[in-house]
Specification:
It is a single chain. This protein is of the alpha+beta class. The protein starts with a strand and ends in a 5-residue tail after the last helix. A five-stranded mixed beta sheet has the order 7-6-5-10-11, sandwiched between helices. Helix content is about 45%, strand content about 20%. The relative contact order is 0.09. Among the domains are: about 100 residues, 2-Layer Sandwich (Dna Ligase, domain 1); about 70 residues, 2-Layer Sandwich (Nucleotidyltransferase, domain 5), CATH 3.30.420. The protein has 13 helices and eleven strands.
Protein backbone atom coordinates (compact mmCIF):
# COMPACT_ATOMS: atom_id res chain seq x y z
CA UNK A 1 0.00 0.00 0.00
CA UNK A 2 1.19 3.54 -0.66
CA UNK A 3 0.48 6.66 1.35
CA UNK A 4 1.62 10.26 1.29
CA UNK A 5 1.48 13.53 3.16
CA UNK A 6 2.04 17.10 1.96
CA UNK A 7 4.25 19.10 4.29
CA UNK A 8 3.87 22.82 4.96
CA UNK A 9 7.20 23.93 3.56
CA UNK A 10 10.10 22.91 1.35
CA UNK A 11 12.54 24.74 3.61
CA UNK A 12 12.27 22.55 6.72
CA UNK A 13 13.79 19.14 7.28
CA UNK A 14 11.63 16.04 7.31
CA UNK A 15 11.37 14.86 10.90
CA UNK A 16 10.59 11.59 12.64
CA UNK A 17 7.18 13.05 13.46
CA UNK A 18 6.45 13.34 9.73
CA UNK A 19 7.20 9.66 9.12
CA UNK A 20 5.14 8.68 12.15
CA UNK A 21 2.19 10.74 10.89
CA UNK A 22 2.43 9.01 7.52
CA UNK A 23 2.58 5.61 9.20
CA UNK A 24 -0.39 6.44 11.45
CA UNK A 25 -2.47 7.28 8.37
CA UNK A 26 -2.03 3.69 7.16
CA UNK A 27 -3.93 2.41 10.19
CA UNK A 28 -6.97 4.29 8.86
CA UNK A 29 -7.27 2.43 5.56
CA UNK A 30 -10.54 0.51 5.07
CA UNK A 31 -10.41 -3.20 5.91
CA UNK A 32 -12.93 -6.02 6.10
CA UNK A 33 -15.28 -6.34 9.07
CA UNK A 34 -13.76 -8.55 11.75
CA UNK A 35 -10.18 -7.77 10.76
CA UNK A 36 -7.55 -5.50 12.27
CA UNK A 37 -4.18 -4.14 11.19
CA UNK A 38 -1.37 -5.89 13.07
CA UNK A 39 1.69 -4.35 11.38
CA UNK A 40 2.41 -1.38 9.15
CA UNK A 41 5.97 -1.87 7.89
CA UNK A 42 7.59 0.88 5.76
CA UNK A 43 9.51 -0.48 2.76
CA UNK A 44 10.86 2.68 1.12
CA UNK A 45 10.13 6.39 0.89
CA UNK A 46 9.73 8.89 -1.93
CA UNK A 47 10.65 12.53 -1.27
CA UNK A 48 9.15 14.67 -4.03
CA UNK A 49 10.59 12.95 -7.12
CA UNK A 50 13.44 11.11 -5.41
CA UNK A 51 12.65 7.39 -5.08
CA UNK A 52 14.23 4.55 -3.12
CA UNK A 53 14.84 6.52 0.06
CA UNK A 54 15.32 4.27 3.09
CA UNK A 55 15.27 7.01 5.74
CA UNK A 56 13.93 10.45 4.77
CA UNK A 57 14.58 12.09 8.16
CA UNK A 58 16.84 15.11 7.66
CA UNK A 59 15.99 15.56 3.98
CA UNK A 60 14.15 18.55 2.51
CA UNK A 61 10.95 18.13 0.57
CA UNK A 62 7.29 19.05 0.28
CA UNK A 63 5.65 15.70 -0.54
CA UNK A 64 6.55 12.60 1.47
CA UNK A 65 5.36 9.23 0.15
CA UNK A 66 6.05 5.67 1.26
CA UNK A 67 5.31 2.10 0.27
CA UNK A 68 4.11 -0.01 3.18
CA UNK A 69 3.73 -3.72 3.81
CA UNK A 70 0.53 -4.04 5.83
CA UNK A 71 -0.27 -7.18 7.82
CA UNK A 72 -3.96 -7.77 8.56
CA UNK A 73 -5.28 -10.40 10.97
CA UNK A 74 -8.55 -11.76 12.28
CA UNK A 75 -9.73 -9.93 15.41
CA UNK A 76 -11.29 -13.01 17.03
CA UNK A 77 -8.13 -15.09 16.58
CA UNK A 78 -5.98 -12.32 18.00
CA UNK A 79 -8.24 -11.92 21.03
CA UNK A 80 -8.20 -15.67 21.69
CA UNK A 81 -4.40 -15.66 21.72
CA UNK A 82 -4.34 -12.62 23.99
CA UNK A 83 -6.83 -14.23 26.38
CA UNK A 84 -4.72 -17.41 26.62
CA UNK A 85 -1.62 -15.40 27.48
CA UNK A 86 -3.48 -13.29 30.04
CA UNK A 87 -4.71 -16.42 31.81
CA UNK A 88 -1.15 -17.42 32.74
CA UNK A 89 -0.58 -14.00 34.30
CA UNK A 90 1.27 -12.32 31.42
CA UNK A 91 0.11 -9.07 29.87
CA UNK A 92 0.23 -8.76 26.08
CA UNK A 93 2.21 -5.70 25.02
CA UNK A 94 2.08 -6.20 21.27
CA UNK A 95 0.98 -8.77 18.68
CA UNK A 96 3.71 -9.86 16.25
CA UNK A 97 3.27 -11.97 13.14
CA UNK A 98 4.99 -15.36 13.56
CA UNK A 99 7.38 -15.18 10.57
CA UNK A 100 8.50 -11.70 11.62
CA UNK A 101 9.29 -12.97 15.12
CA UNK A 102 11.09 -16.04 13.77
CA UNK A 103 13.11 -13.95 11.33
CA UNK A 104 14.40 -11.82 14.21
CA UNK A 105 15.78 -14.99 15.81
CA UNK A 106 17.29 -16.88 12.87
CA UNK A 107 18.14 -14.46 10.05
CA UNK A 108 21.30 -12.37 9.87
CA UNK A 109 21.40 -8.78 8.65
CA UNK A 110 23.61 -9.92 5.75
CA UNK A 111 20.98 -12.42 4.63
CA UNK A 112 18.22 -9.82 4.79
CA UNK A 113 20.31 -7.47 2.68
CA UNK A 114 21.26 -10.07 0.07
CA UNK A 115 17.74 -11.48 -0.16
CA UNK A 116 16.41 -14.43 1.80
CA UNK A 117 13.19 -16.38 2.28
CA UNK A 118 12.21 -17.77 5.67
CA UNK A 119 9.98 -20.85 5.77
CA UNK A 120 8.79 -21.61 9.31
CA UNK A 121 7.12 -25.04 9.39
CA UNK A 122 5.10 -25.22 12.59
CA UNK A 123 2.54 -27.62 13.94
CA UNK A 124 -0.54 -25.97 12.44
CA UNK A 125 0.76 -23.42 9.93
CA UNK A 126 3.70 -22.76 7.63
CA UNK A 127 4.80 -19.13 7.74
CA UNK A 128 6.67 -17.26 5.01
CA UNK A 129 8.74 -14.07 5.18
CA UNK A 130 10.76 -12.62 2.30
CA UNK A 131 13.48 -10.00 2.79
CA UNK A 132 15.56 -8.12 0.24
CA UNK A 133 17.75 -5.05 0.65
CA UNK A 134 17.04 -5.29 4.42
CA UNK A 135 13.33 -4.66 3.75
CA UNK A 136 10.41 -7.01 4.38
CA UNK A 137 8.92 -7.68 0.95
CA UNK A 138 6.30 -10.35 1.53
CA UNK A 139 4.66 -12.36 4.29
CA UNK A 140 2.20 -15.24 4.09
CA UNK A 141 0.67 -17.91 6.29
CA UNK A 142 -0.14 -21.34 4.81
CA UNK A 143 -2.90 -22.97 6.91
CA UNK A 144 -1.23 -26.35 7.39
CA UNK A 145 2.06 -27.69 8.70
CA UNK A 146 3.36 -30.70 10.57
CA UNK A 147 -0.13 -31.60 11.78
CA UNK A 148 -1.22 -32.80 8.34
CA UNK A 149 1.83 -35.05 8.10
CA UNK A 150 0.86 -36.68 11.39
CA UNK A 151 -2.68 -37.16 10.09
CA UNK A 152 -1.39 -38.74 6.86
CA UNK A 153 0.72 -41.23 8.83
CA UNK A 154 -2.21 -42.02 11.10
CA UNK A 155 -4.53 -42.72 8.18
CA UNK A 156 -1.98 -44.33 5.88
CA UNK A 157 -0.72 -46.75 8.53
CA UNK A 158 -4.05 -47.13 10.39
CA UNK A 159 -2.54 -46.29 13.77
CA UNK A 160 -3.37 -43.92 16.62
CA UNK A 161 -2.41 -40.26 16.40
CA UNK A 162 0.06 -40.43 19.30
CA UNK A 163 2.00 -43.22 17.59
CA UNK A 164 1.89 -41.38 14.27
CA UNK A 165 3.49 -38.33 15.89
CA UNK A 166 6.20 -40.49 17.49
CA UNK A 167 6.96 -42.18 14.18
CA UNK A 168 7.23 -38.82 12.43
CA UNK A 169 9.59 -37.33 15.01
CA UNK A 170 11.78 -40.36 15.76
CA UNK A 171 11.98 -42.23 12.45
CA UNK A 172 10.63 -39.88 9.77
CA UNK A 173 12.50 -38.75 6.67
CA UNK A 174 11.59 -36.28 3.94
CA UNK A 175 13.17 -38.43 1.21
CA UNK A 176 11.81 -41.91 0.63
CA UNK A 177 14.69 -42.96 -1.63
CA UNK A 178 17.19 -42.44 1.20
CA UNK A 179 15.23 -44.45 3.77
CA UNK A 180 16.50 -47.91 4.66
CA UNK A 181 14.65 -50.83 3.04
CA UNK A 182 15.41 -53.40 5.71
CA UNK A 183 14.31 -51.45 8.78
CA UNK A 184 10.85 -51.60 10.33
CA UNK A 185 9.26 -50.27 13.50
CA UNK A 186 6.56 -52.09 15.46
CA UNK A 187 3.54 -50.08 16.59
CA UNK A 188 0.92 -51.35 19.09
CA UNK A 189 -2.40 -52.31 17.54
CA UNK A 190 -5.65 -50.48 18.25
CA UNK A 191 -7.60 -51.77 21.26
CA UNK A 192 -5.62 -54.98 21.71
CA UNK A 193 -5.29 -55.85 18.04
CA UNK A 194 -2.11 -57.28 16.56
CA UNK A 195 0.89 -54.91 16.47
CA UNK A 196 1.79 -53.43 13.09
CA UNK A 197 5.16 -53.37 11.40
CA UNK A 198 5.82 -50.23 9.40
CA UNK A 199 8.88 -49.96 7.18
CA UNK A 200 11.04 -46.86 7.31
CA UNK A 201 10.74 -46.49 3.54
CA UNK A 202 6.93 -46.56 3.54
CA UNK A 203 6.90 -44.01 6.34
CA UNK A 204 9.32 -41.75 4.46
CA UNK A 205 7.25 -41.80 1.26
CA UNK A 206 4.12 -40.79 3.19
CA UNK A 207 6.02 -37.89 4.74
CA UNK A 208 7.69 -36.86 1.47
CA UNK A 209 4.38 -36.65 -0.38
CA UNK A 210 2.90 -34.16 2.08
CA UNK A 211 6.17 -32.29 2.64
CA UNK A 212 6.43 -31.66 -1.10
CA UNK A 213 2.97 -30.08 -0.99
CA UNK A 214 4.04 -27.80 1.87
CA UNK A 215 7.24 -26.81 0.06
CA UNK A 216 5.46 -26.18 -3.24
CA UNK A 217 2.87 -23.99 -1.47
CA UNK A 218 5.72 -21.99 0.08
CA UNK A 219 7.45 -21.64 -3.30
CA UNK A 220 4.18 -20.42 -4.81
CA UNK A 221 4.17 -17.61 -2.23
CA UNK A 222 7.79 -16.80 -3.07
CA UNK A 223 6.80 -16.46 -6.73
CA UNK A 224 3.99 -14.10 -5.73
CA UNK A 225 6.43 -11.95 -3.78
CA UNK A 226 8.19 -10.94 -7.00
CA UNK A 227 11.55 -11.57 -5.33
CA UNK A 228 12.21 -15.14 -6.43
CA UNK A 229 15.21 -14.06 -8.54
CA UNK A 230 16.57 -11.81 -5.78
CA UNK A 231 17.10 -14.40 -3.04
CA UNK A 232 20.90 -14.53 -3.13
CA UNK A 233 21.00 -15.97 0.40
CA UNK A 234 18.53 -18.69 -0.54
CA UNK A 235 16.04 -20.22 1.88
CA UNK A 236 16.20 -20.63 5.65
CA UNK A 237 13.92 -23.33 7.06
CA UNK A 238 13.01 -23.24 10.74
CA UNK A 239 10.27 -24.36 13.11
CA UNK A 240 9.69 -27.84 14.49
CA UNK A 241 9.06 -29.24 11.01
CA UNK A 242 12.55 -28.25 9.88
CA UNK A 243 14.00 -31.02 12.06
CA UNK A 244 12.72 -33.66 9.65
CA UNK A 245 15.61 -35.73 8.30
CA UNK A 246 16.75 -34.83 4.78
CA UNK A 247 14.39 -31.85 4.58
CA UNK A 248 17.09 -29.38 3.42
CA UNK A 249 17.92 -31.70 0.51
CA UNK A 250 14.26 -31.90 -0.49
CA UNK A 251 13.78 -28.11 -0.32
CA UNK A 252 16.95 -27.57 -2.35
CA UNK A 253 15.79 -30.10 -4.94
CA UNK A 254 12.34 -28.46 -5.29
CA UNK A 255 13.60 -24.84 -5.27
CA UNK A 256 17.08 -24.99 -6.79
CA UNK A 257 18.34 -22.61 -4.08
CA UNK A 258 20.75 -22.85 -1.18
CA UNK A 259 19.04 -24.04 1.99
CA UNK A 260 20.01 -24.04 5.64
CA UNK A 261 18.26 -24.78 8.94
CA UNK A 262 17.65 -21.69 11.08
CA UNK A 263 18.62 -22.01 14.74
CA UNK A 264 17.53 -19.28 17.17
CA UNK A 265 20.81 -19.20 19.09
CA UNK A 266 22.47 -17.60 16.05
CA UNK A 267 21.23 -14.23 17.35
CA UNK A 268 21.86 -14.91 21.05
CA UNK A 269 25.52 -15.89 21.12
CA UNK A 270 26.64 -19.19 22.58
CA UNK A 271 23.94 -21.31 24.18
CA UNK A 272 25.97 -23.59 26.44
CA UNK A 273 22.84 -25.11 28.01
CA UNK A 274 21.27 -26.06 24.68
CA UNK A 275 17.83 -25.08 26.03
CA UNK A 276 16.94 -22.77 23.15
CA UNK A 277 19.15 -24.31 20.46
CA UNK A 278 16.17 -25.78 18.66
CA UNK A 279 14.33 -24.48 15.57
CA UNK A 280 10.98 -25.16 17.25
CA UNK A 281 11.72 -22.24 19.59
CA UNK A 282 12.50 -19.73 16.83
CA UNK A 283 9.24 -17.83 17.17
CA UNK A 284 9.44 -17.78 20.98
CA UNK A 285 13.01 -16.46 20.95
CA UNK A 286 12.06 -13.91 18.30
CA UNK A 287 9.23 -12.64 20.51
CA UNK A 288 11.69 -12.28 23.39
CA UNK A 289 14.12 -10.36 21.18
CA UNK A 290 11.34 -8.02 20.04
CA UNK A 291 10.22 -7.57 23.64
CA UNK A 292 13.78 -6.84 24.70
CA UNK A 293 14.11 -4.16 22.00
CA UNK A 294 10.81 -2.58 23.08
CA UNK A 295 12.00 -2.56 26.69
CA UNK A 296 15.36 -1.00 25.80
CA UNK A 297 13.72 1.70 23.68
CA UNK A 298 11.31 2.44 26.52
CA UNK A 299 14.14 2.74 29.04
CA UNK A 300 16.18 4.84 26.62
CA UNK A 301 13.22 7.16 26.07
CA UNK A 302 12.73 7.61 29.81
CA UNK A 303 16.41 8.45 30.28
CA UNK A 304 16.35 10.97 27.44
CA UNK A 305 13.23 12.55 28.92
CA UNK A 306 14.94 12.85 32.30
CA UNK A 307 18.03 14.38 30.70
CA UNK A 308 15.94 17.03 29.00
CA UNK A 309 14.70 18.20 32.40
CA UNK A 310 18.26 18.90 33.66
CA UNK A 311 19.57 22.15 32.13
CA UNK A 312 23.19 21.44 33.13
CA UNK A 313 23.21 18.15 31.17
CA UNK A 314 21.59 19.68 28.11
CA UNK A 315 24.05 22.54 27.98
CA UNK A 316 27.03 20.18 28.17
CA UNK A 317 26.02 17.12 26.18
CA UNK A 318 22.53 17.62 24.81
CA UNK A 319 23.54 17.04 21.21
CA UNK A 320 22.80 14.12 18.94
CA UNK A 321 24.37 10.96 20.32
CA UNK A 322 25.30 9.93 16.79
CA UNK A 323 27.65 12.92 16.51
CA UNK A 324 31.32 12.05 16.94
CA UNK A 325 33.02 13.34 20.07
CA UNK A 326 36.37 15.16 19.85
CA UNK A 327 39.25 12.72 20.13
CA UNK A 328 40.73 13.01 23.60
CA UNK A 329 41.57 10.70 26.49
CA UNK A 330 38.22 11.15 28.23
CA UNK A 331 36.24 10.55 25.06
CA UNK A 332 38.09 7.27 24.51
CA UNK A 333 37.02 5.84 27.86
CA UNK A 334 33.41 5.02 26.88
CA UNK A 335 34.76 2.76 24.11
CA UNK A 336 35.66 0.23 26.80
CA UNK A 337 32.08 0.34 28.05
CA UNK A 338 30.80 -0.11 24.52
CA UNK A 339 33.05 -3.15 24.12
CA UNK A 340 31.46 -4.68 27.19
CA UNK A 341 27.94 -3.86 26.04
CA UNK A 342 27.49 -6.97 23.87
CA UNK A 343 28.23 -9.50 26.67
CA UNK A 344 25.97 -7.50 28.98
CA UNK A 345 23.13 -7.63 26.46
CA UNK A 346 23.66 -11.36 25.95
CA UNK A 347 23.64 -11.91 29.72
CA UNK A 348 20.45 -9.89 30.12
CA UNK A 349 18.81 -11.79 27.29
CA UNK A 350 19.91 -15.09 28.81
CA UNK A 351 18.37 -14.08 32.17
CA UNK A 352 15.09 -13.24 30.44
CA UNK A 353 15.01 -16.59 28.63
CA UNK A 354 15.92 -18.52 31.79
CA UNK A 355 13.10 -16.72 33.58
CA UNK A 356 10.59 -17.80 30.95
CA UNK A 357 11.90 -21.38 31.00
CA UNK A 358 11.59 -21.46 34.79
CA UNK A 359 8.09 -19.98 34.65
CA UNK A 360 6.76 -22.64 32.29
CA UNK A 361 8.60 -25.43 34.11
CA UNK A 362 6.99 -24.36 37.39
CA UNK A 363 3.55 -24.26 35.77
CA UNK A 364 3.80 -27.52 33.81
CA UNK A 365 2.19 -29.72 36.46
CA UNK A 366 -0.56 -32.07 35.18
CA UNK A 367 -4.10 -30.72 35.25
Amino acid sequence: NRGYINRDSYDTEITLADTERLLADMYKIPIELGEEIIHVLPQNYIVDSETGVKNPVGMFGKRLEANFHIVIGDIASARNIERCVNRVGIKVRQMILEPLASSAAVLSDEEKEAGVALIDIGGGTTDIAVFHDEIIRHTAVIPFGGNVITKDIMEGCAILSKYAEQLKVQFGSALGDLAQDDKVVTVPGINGREPKEISFKSLAYIIQSRMEEIIDSALFELENSGCMDKLSAGIVVTGGGSLMRNLPQLVKFRSGMDVRIGYPNERLGNDSTGEVNDPMYSTSVGLLLNGYDILMHSVSGEKNHQHEEIPEFVSEGGKDRSAKEPKNEKAAEPDEDETAESPKKTTTMRNIINGFIGFFDDNSTPM
